[in-house]
Design goal:
Blueprint (H helix, E strand, L loop, with lengths): L8 E5 L5 H10 L3 E5 L7 H5 L3 E2 L3 H7 L2 E4 L4 H9 L4 H4 L5 E4 L5 H13 L3 E4 L2 E2 L1 H6 L3 E6 L2 H14 E8 L3 H29 L4 H8 L7 H12 L8 H18 L4 H15 L11 H4 L3
Parallel strand pairs: 1-2, 1-4, 2-3, 4-5, 5-6, 8-9
Antiparallel strand pairs: 7-8
Helix pairs in contact: 9-11, 9-12, 9-13, 12-13
């Protein structure tokens, strides 16, 4: 299959904080975009710009040659793909299925197998970069699945990201995303602690950030989320509730492999405390409040 903006209908399921921007880039490239999301209002702008709205995933699947999903939790992925009214049951042979949700590696393997049995091509392609990366089409995209399928879908990936890597067979993309989330988890504690230390010691955190973000302490989280912490902006680029979900998946996968992850365990426990305080709908940078209350 050769994809082109003139001939390929692309379905996008899940138009939240990141999905809306990702779908928008595909639409702006000239592809006929079909959308479905549980909260119809979230897709309204895309529909106003010409996207075709569907009432069910099954209806969308039947109309598209490529289907991309960006939903919340593994149970959502499983329902959308494997249910009787789901994507696999209602897609024509030859359709490409790309799940960009951060989900379970084991579920990605199951979807790949079920899809292959129906003549469908499945890729797991979780992303990193948050709302900023999605908005600017600079996401890091980690892909698992057949190499030929990855090559075929690369033009679409290039509309959404700049660091696009085929990691291996089905599930490899999700395993790579777990590596990403493990690295972020402990780093977020470090970023929040450092900025809390700066404030508590009487320094100007913004001035401190100028010194440390370009040195050995530099990280994406420090440069992009550090200013939000300092400014008291805790609105979501990536929800606390979704980060907890990701960390739980990583902890479960690590346990299955017999791998110890003390940093991840600590980070997950801190975010669980934030969840209990009612911060599920806030961005991950709200961890700053665990160390200092404005």
């Amino acid at each position: 299959m050769t994809i082109s903006s003139e001939q390929t209908a692309v379905g996008f399921i899940g138009t939240g904080v990141m999905g809306k921007s990702m779908a928008g880039h595909i639409q702006q490239a000239g592809y006929k975009l079909h959308v479905y999301t549980r909260t119809a209002e979230k897709a309204q702008q895309l529909v106003e710009q010409g996207a075709v709205w569907h009432e069910t995933p099954a209806s969308l699947a039947a109309a598209c040659q490529v289907i991309i999903t960006m939903v919340g939790y593994p149970q959502d992925v499983e329902e959308i793909y494997l249910g009787e009214d789901g994507i696999i049951a209602n897609s024509a042979a030859g359709t490409y299925l790309i799940d960009m949700t951060t989900s379970s590696p084991q579920l990605a393997e199951k979807i790949y197998e079920e899809a292959a049995a129906k003549g469908l091509h499945a890729l797991d392609a979780p992303v990193s970069g948050g709302d900023i990366g999605a908005r600017d089409a600079k996401l890091s995209i980690m892909v698992g699945g057949h190499a030929a399928d990855f090559e075929t879908m690369t033009p679409l990936f290039q509309l959404m990201g700049t660091n696009i890597v085929h990691q291996g067979t089905a599930g490899a993309g999700q395993h790579t995303k777990m590596c990403n989330q493990i690295a972020i988890a402990s780093n977020m504690i470090g970023v929040a602690e450092a900025l809390a230390y700066a404030k508590t010691s009487g320094l100007d955190p913004e001035t401190v950030l100028k010194s440390i973000e370009t040195g050995a302490a530099g990280s994406w989280s420090l440069s992009n989320l550090g200013p939000r912490m300092i400014g008291g902006n805790f609105e979501p680029g990536f929800y606390v509730k979704h980060f907890i979900k990701d960390m739980r998946i990583a902890l479960e996968s690590a346990k299955e492999m017999g791998l110890k992850t003390p940093g991840l365990t600590l980070a997950e426990s801190v975010y669980e405390q934030l969840s209990k305080l009612g911060y599920d709908e806030k961005g991950t940078q709200v961890i700053y409040k665990h160390f200092i209350e404005e």
